[in-house]
Amino acid sequence: MDRIRLRGGKPLEGSIGIGGAKNAALPLMAASLLSEETLTLSNVPHLADIATMAHLLQQHGVDVSMDGGNGTPEGRTIHLNAGKITSTLAPYDLVRKMRASVLVLGPLLARFGEAEVSLPGGCAIGTRPVDLHIMGLKAMGAEINVENGYIKARAKQGLKGAVIRFPQVSVGATENLLMAAALADGTTVLENAAREPEISDLVQCLVAMGAMIDGIGSEHLTIHGKPSLRGATHKIVPDRIEIGTYLAAVAICGGKVELTGARLDLIEAVAEKLVEAGCEIGQTTRGISIARNGSRLKGVDFLTAPYPGFPTDMQAQMMSLMAVADGASMITETIFENRFMHVPELARMGANIVVHGSSALVRGVPKLTGAPVMATDLRASVSLVLAGLAAEGETVINRVYHLDRGYERLEDKLSACGADIERLKD
Ligand code: UD1
């Protein structure tokens, strides 16, 4: 298994290209199941999770082809044709690798009247049920049974429009139901829907495929179902978590970097906290610039929340910054129940963090020291990279396959800006 070795203490200078959003690409790829015509997606990041979704779709019979070079600034283009579906079963072996596989449930059920999708099960950051996905599809007339670890769904007469109010904001459930509703008979209203930019990206693509959807960007989406959708071409929105992570990298290392292709409006809640902590951030013609010169970061409090709140997917990275900030920081996680696995690893590097339930009190220390650490999930892993970039001495991060799920050429992008980071191949 590959490892990453870092030696901390170098400021970052230069520019970093931002790729397309993994969390937008995954539902967009699943949306190809809604049409017998080709869906072409551009700005697709080169990541392990994208390959897993491509594999799952191929296993359903989707014809998947890709062009564009690995690592080109514009990412790759992927063509998906679901003209001949051979199976509506999403097997355990693929779903357990990646929870977002459950996003094939809505489109398969809506177009073919049946789908059998393995239950994703828990993951490192919490139990993560899919009850809201199931509740919404049932409200649209599907018969759903959970048997032998599979969600077995049928809607032989097709899905019907319904009014669905989510008791809790869910990105995945909003996406699954949006896709299902696009082919349902009648109008579906989703209330308390997620508003993440990846949802708006999916809405835009569905509209390009011929769907009629009102309320884009709001928590109230109205979908007028169509009997069929056409093919389309869609460019994937920039990855706001990749943007936030590199902003955090510059914040913790100091220096000045331009993130090309980045948009400030996607990451305002994080940018505001970084400015409060002492960084200078601005939109440029090519992207976002960030600088931190001289003075130490200041501790700031924050709370994760659905968009436009502070993203849970940036909580771990921000905690690394707070570990070396001047003063204390109270961090509260409201989305996932077990998302502090990076805390013991940061503590091994000298951080002073106390967890009480869903809050972590971080008392900033003057410096962290390098240590061998273990990556536990995608964002926890990258928080250890950030800590290592700021630490004195050498840090070796094990189990970096987590990083490869969500960060394209992370070590190349950081080392091009002066970081001392390399991948050790095993
Ligand atoms: C997506 C993102 C993930 C991000 C998360 C929250 C993708 C591929 N992944 O995950 O990176 O951290 O949004 O921004 O886009 N819940 C239920 N029942 C359900 C569904 C969700 O109780 O049926 C709960 C979850 O356990 C969690 C909360 O709702 O506590 C939010 O989860 P959700 O927004 O659905 O996250 P994902 O779509 O899985």
UniProtKB/TrEMBL annotation:
The lineage of its organism: Bacteria, Pseudomonadati, Pseudomonadota, Alphaproteobacteria, Rhodospirillales. It is an enzyme of class 2 (transferase). It is found in: Cytoplasm. It catalyses: phosphoenolpyruvate + UDP-N-acetyl-alpha-D-glucosamine = UDP-N-acetyl-3-O-(1-carboxyvinyl)-alpha-D-glucosamine + phosphate. Keywords: Cell cycle, Cell division, Cell shape, Cell wall biogenesis/degradation, Cytoplasm, Peptidoglycan synthesis, Pyruvate, Transferase. GO terms for cellular component: cytoplasm. The active site is at C123 (proton donor). The gene is murA. It comes from Ferrovibrio terrae. The modification 2-(S-cysteinyl)pyruvic acid O-phosphothioketal is found at C123. Residues 7-414 form the Enolpyruvate transferase domain. GO terms for molecular function: UDP-N-acetylglucosamine 1-carboxyvinyltransferase activity. GO terms for biological process: cell division; cell wall organization; peptidoglycan biosynthetic process; regulation of cell shape; UDP-N-acetylgalactosamine biosynthetic process. Phosphoenolpyruvate binds at K22, N23. HAMAP family: MurA (MF_00111). Cell wall formation. Adds enolpyruvyl to UDP-N-acetylglucosamine. Gene3D superfamilies: Enolpyruvate transferase domain. The keyword Ligase does not apply. This is UDP-N-acetylglucosamine 1-carboxyvinyltransferase. Belongs to the EPSP synthase family. MurA subfamily. InterPro entries: Enolpyruvate_Tfrase_dom, Enolpyruvate_Tfrase_sf, MurA_subfamily, RNA3'P_cycl/enolpyr_Trfase_a/b, UDP_GlcNAc_COvinyl_MurA. UDP-N-acetyl-alpha-D-glucosamine binds at R99, R128, P129, V130, D131, L132, D313, I335. It comes from the Bacteria.
